[in-house]
């Protein structure tokens, strides 16, 4: 992150959730739908408080479930409103049909998803499995590393979702517990600066809105060519969103003095021999360990994914090609593949890396902590890989039992 | 960077203690990051919170395994092995206890601080919520903060009469904490 | 049975607006839903926003690709969240200061079954729109399956006649009464044999939605799914009313009032005999259905006479 000196700042020590709620407030949405779920609840509590104090002039719908939250904001968005909602885990999958419908109808919704485990094992714990469960929904996915980036990404998400050339819903993800409840200093932007940043949208052509009496409809049956046309337009808009996001990041810097690099953030990558690819809160820890390893003469860098949908393959190839070894850290599983989801997707670009070998690390699942020691182990492993040593393709860093080659052969459980 | 681990129970304001301290560090141009680790949110359940305080930005997003400062708000945990797990040499411990004769010794402790925060809180705010007293006592014991930024930080969490009462709590914590070099 | 001339004129008086639907739309001959769907905008105006879900109404209401069968603003949505969608529309229009009448138009599958949770939620929050359930007592669009409003004894493809079974062996739920118990500004039942009553209730609905949530439950027989002659659709409705199988009432803030008294109710068999879906019922089954109809009507009668005994809270009075 590049930080330019600014004349005026207001640093507030707030949680990741409060940063999300503050960003939502600054974006001045017309309609907000609220339903509680750990670890997201604090966001909607905070928004309810803003609303109750007259600080947030929106229609606040305290729905009876997440499915209704998504349905309500989808409709309000298509009617022309700016909308916000937040969820997590089971809440995200409970609104799954509406999440798909929102994307299909190209409703420019901004939703925060506080990442939490989601599979059939009930777990009140961190993990990105909920994000993976909805990755093919047709939404744009952005991922934040710290509380400041949570706030910045929510604001950037509005510019991306509502851009006339994009009109695709955006989900802003950040790690539950490790970031949702983390209190740290956040430079809270001034309202007039946010208004300036978002005012670009007002100067664009206005999107089609569902208005009473105007004889317009949405949600028609898509038949054959009509369906294909809409799907192709959707896929194309997502492709366009990559460069658009880079551009928005630059414009953000002009006003707020912070730039992250758009689709990806690179940390000490220029001269790096080996690279960890990661996302979310783990990246702060990885940066600390990289600095330590650098002191010891190991040239390691970090490629942080800020965007996961669309997959920023082109910029990643550009950043990674020619490196001696790449390790991808996944905070979720990819059932049906041995490696994690990010790893598996990046693997499809492998032939473009000019021979860089890749391995997969699974860590941070089920609230396991991606510790500095774990990160050091991962870096040691990719150094071994770079040195031509034999290294397992997939390593479950916090569950060594999984790394026993015989462990997968035992049936009956 | 100081790595502080807070041990207490739901309802004692453990998480708020670490938040207020992070806030106070931010007010003097330093950096603080705090986060809790608890299971289901219930009053009375054990709560652990972590605080990292530094003059450089705090980037780590992990739990604290090797603290150099311990803050124990719940006296029933004062003899727990879990509290001392991973404690670095030359560390400090701040304990909230109603028993003024309590002394904690540990091979890695160089400083021990004792405060009857519940008593002060009861006197000043009428509730046995020790957190703001602990904030003041922490500033004094650690030497990392003055009391002023701690009092200023309280403005983000309290208002009106509660604010002034809690400022008194913090100040009394700062003044009344007993320090023992070990 | 021809209606009296005067009465017919009275109904037409309510049709102040154009029929926005094209002729020859894709409904079965004698479809109760079609009559209802054409009737609503003629009474309420063509400036309503109508929402619909996958259902019998969908092919006509929601159009295909960029073509539509009508001139209304419409929103095609999911059965699971229909009432929440309408909520989003109505709330945004409120915020933006746009005059609106949002009509959330759904079958009984959405209203009574898969979408009941969000229907109940919208009612509890008193959201400012009109929810209309056209009740054809089952999932007709998917090929006639049982729903929560399918009556006792009815044969559907998921309650078929078999060697040990002869149709639905459970009593239907009373959706309208459940909705009235949400203490919303206006809830009512209506059907296609009593269009004057329906039109008046639609107009009351439009007025009441200024105060919050409105629920209309309209019995809309399905010739294909029920197995009655297309020309008998209205007669089926008429007999449903005359047997007290589907009594006509309204409730303002939960206070129930009958809107059509049936002096001497006919046996329910005079209703069931018109539709093949009841063909597998024995005398004993008919008695069970009759008992259920009598029981529900008794509750309704009791509730409508409670005025004076139970004081409505002042806040709930008009």
Account of the 3D structure:
The complex is a heterotrimer of chains A (413), B (182) and C (318). Chain A has a seven-stranded mixed sheet with strand order 4-3-5-6-8-7-15, with helices on both faces. In chain A, strands 12-14-13-16-17-18 form a six-stranded mixed sheet, with helices on both faces. The mean pLDDT of chain A is 95. Chain A folds into two domains: 2-259, Thiamin diphosphate (ThDP)-binding fold, Pyr/PP domains (Rossmann fold), CATH 3.40.50.970; 264-409, Rossmann fold (3-Layer(aba) Sandwich), CATH 3.40.50. Chain A has 413 residues and is an alpha/beta fold. Chain A is globular and about 70 Å long. Chain A is built from 13 helices and 18 strands. Chain B has a single domain (2-181), classed as Pyruvate-ferredoxin Oxidoreductase, domain 3, CATH 3.40.920. Helix content of chain B is 35%, strand content 25%. Chain B is built from six helices and seven strands, in the order βαβββαββααααβ. Chain B has helices spanning 14-27, 81-84, 117-125, 131-142, 147-154, 160-176, and strands spanning 2-9, 31-37, 46-54, 69-72, 91-96, 109-115, 178-181. Chain C is α/β, with parallel strands linked by helices and 318 residues long. Chain C has one domain (20-308): Rossmann fold. Chain C has helices at 5-14, 32-44, 58-61, 82-96, 108-114, 116-124, 175-180, 195-208, 223-226, 233-242, 269-272, 283-304; strands at 49-52, 73-76, 102-107, 130-135, 186-191, 214-219, 249-252, 255-258. Chain C is globular and about 60 Å long. Chain C starts with a helix and ends in a 14-residue tail after the last helix. The relative contact order of chain C is 0.12.
């Amino acid at each position: 992150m590049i930080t330019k000196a600014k004349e005026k700042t207001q640093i507030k020590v707030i949680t990741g959730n409060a940063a999300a709620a503050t960003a939502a407030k600054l974006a001045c949405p017309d309609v907000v739908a609220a339903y509680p779920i750990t670890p997201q609840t604090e966001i909607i509590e905070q928004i309810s408080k803003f609303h109750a104090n007259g600080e947030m002039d929106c229609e606040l719908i305290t729905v009876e479930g997440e499915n209704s939250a998504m349905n309500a904001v989808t409709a309000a968005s298509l009617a022309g409103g700016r909308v916000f909602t937040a969820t997590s885990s089971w809440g995200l999958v409970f609104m799954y049909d509406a999440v798909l419908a929102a994307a299909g109808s190209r409703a420019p919704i901004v939703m925060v998803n506080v990442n939490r485990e989601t599979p059939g094992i009930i777990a009140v714990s961190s993990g990105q499995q909920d994000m993976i469960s909805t990755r093919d929904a047709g939404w744009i996915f952005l991922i934040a590393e710290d509380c400041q980036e949570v706030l910045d990404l929510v604001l950037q998400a509005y510019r991306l979702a509502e851009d006339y050339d994009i009109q695709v819903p955006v989900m802003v993800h950040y790690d539950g517990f490790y970031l949702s409840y983390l209190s740290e200093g956040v430079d809270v932007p001034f309202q007039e600066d946010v208004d300036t940043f978002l005012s670009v949208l007002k100067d664009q052509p206005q999107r089609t809105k569902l208005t009473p009496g105007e004889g317009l409809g949405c949600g028609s049956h898509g038949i054959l060519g009509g369906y294909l046309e809409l799907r192709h337009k959707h896929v194309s808009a997502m492709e366009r969103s990559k460069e658009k996001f880079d551009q928005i990041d630059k414009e953000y810097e002009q006003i707020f003095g912070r730039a992250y690099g758009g689709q990806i953030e690179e940390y000490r990558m220029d001269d790096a021999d080996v690279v960890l690819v990661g996302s979310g809160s783990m990246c702060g820890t990885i940066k600390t360990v990289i600095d330590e390893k650098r002191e010891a003469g190991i040239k390691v860098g970090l490629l942080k994914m800020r965007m996961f949908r669309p997959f920023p393959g082109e910029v990643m190839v550009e950043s990674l090609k020619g490196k001696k070894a790449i390790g991808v850290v996944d905070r979720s599983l990819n059932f049906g593949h041995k490696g994690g989801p990010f790893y598996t997707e990046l693997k499809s670009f492998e032939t473009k890396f000019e021979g860089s070998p890749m391995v997969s690390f699974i860590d941070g699942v089920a609230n396991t902590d991606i510790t500095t020691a774990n990160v050091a182990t991962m870096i040691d492993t990719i150094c071994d890989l770079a040195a031509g040593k034999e290294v397992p393709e997939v390593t479950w860093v916090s569950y060594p039992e999984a790394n026993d080659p015989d462990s997968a052969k035992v049936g009956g459980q | 960077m100081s790595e502080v681990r807070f041990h207490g129970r739901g309802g004692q304001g453990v998480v708020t203690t670490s938040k207020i301290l992070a806030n106070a560090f931010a007010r003097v141009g330093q950096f603080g990051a705090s986060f809790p680790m608890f299971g289901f949110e219930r009053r009375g359940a054990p709560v652990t919170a972590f605080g990292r305080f530094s003059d450089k930005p705090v980037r780590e997003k992990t739990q604290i395994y090797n603290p150099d400062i311990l803050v124990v708000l719940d006296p029933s945990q004062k003899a727990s092995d879990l509290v001392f797990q991973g404690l670095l040499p030359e560390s400090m411990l701040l304990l909230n206890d109603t028993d003024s004769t309590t002394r904690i010794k540990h091979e890695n402790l160089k400083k021990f601080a004792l405060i009857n925060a519940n008593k002060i809180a009861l006197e000043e705010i009428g509730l046995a919520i020790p957190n703001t007293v602990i904030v003041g006592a922490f500033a004094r014991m650690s030497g990392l903060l003055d009391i002023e930024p701690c009092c200023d930080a309280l403005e983000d969490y309290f208002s009106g009469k509660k604010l002034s009462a809690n400022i008194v709590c913090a100040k009394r914590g700062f003044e009344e904490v007993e320090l023992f070099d070990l | 049975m021809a209606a009296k001339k005067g009465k017919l004129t009275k109904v037409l008086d309510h049709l102040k607006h154009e029929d926005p639907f094209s002729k020859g739309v894709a409904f079965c001959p004698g479809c109760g839903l079609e009559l209802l769907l054409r009737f609503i905008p003629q009474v309420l105006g063509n400036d309503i926003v109508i929402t619909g879900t996958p259902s019998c109404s969908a092919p006509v209401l929601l159009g295909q690709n960029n073509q539509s069968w009508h001139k209304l603003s419409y929103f095609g949505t999911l059965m699971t969240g229909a009432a929440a969608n309408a909520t989003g529309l109505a709330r945004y229009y409120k915020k933006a200061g746009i005059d609106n009448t949002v009509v959330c138009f759904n079958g009984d599958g959405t209203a009574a079954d898969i979408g009941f949770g969000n229907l109940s939620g919208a009612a509890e929050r008193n959201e400012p729109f009109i929810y209309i359930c056209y009740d054809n007592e089952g999932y007709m669009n998917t090929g006639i399956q049982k729903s929560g409003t399918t009556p006792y004894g009815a044969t559907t493809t998921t309650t078929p006649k078999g060697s040990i079974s002869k149709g639905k062996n459970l009593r239907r739920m009373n959706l309208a009464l459940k909705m009235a118990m949400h203490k919303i500004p206006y809830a009512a039942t209506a059907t296609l044999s009593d269009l004057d009553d329906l039109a008046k209730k639609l107009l009351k609905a439009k007025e009441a939605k200024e105060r919050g949530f409105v629920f209309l439950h309209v019995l809309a027989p399905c010739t294909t799914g029920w197995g009655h002659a297309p020309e008998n659709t209205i007669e089926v409705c008429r007999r449903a009313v005359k047997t007290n199988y589907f009594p006509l009432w309204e409730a303002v803030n939960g206070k129930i009032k009958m809107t059509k008294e049936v002096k001497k109710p006919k046996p329910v068999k005079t209703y069931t005999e018109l539709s093949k879906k009841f063909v597998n019922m024995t005398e004993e089954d008919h008695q069970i259905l009759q008992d259920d109809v009598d029981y529900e009507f008794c509750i309704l009668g009791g509730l409508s006479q409670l005025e004076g005994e139970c004081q409505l809270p002042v806040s709930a009075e008009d």
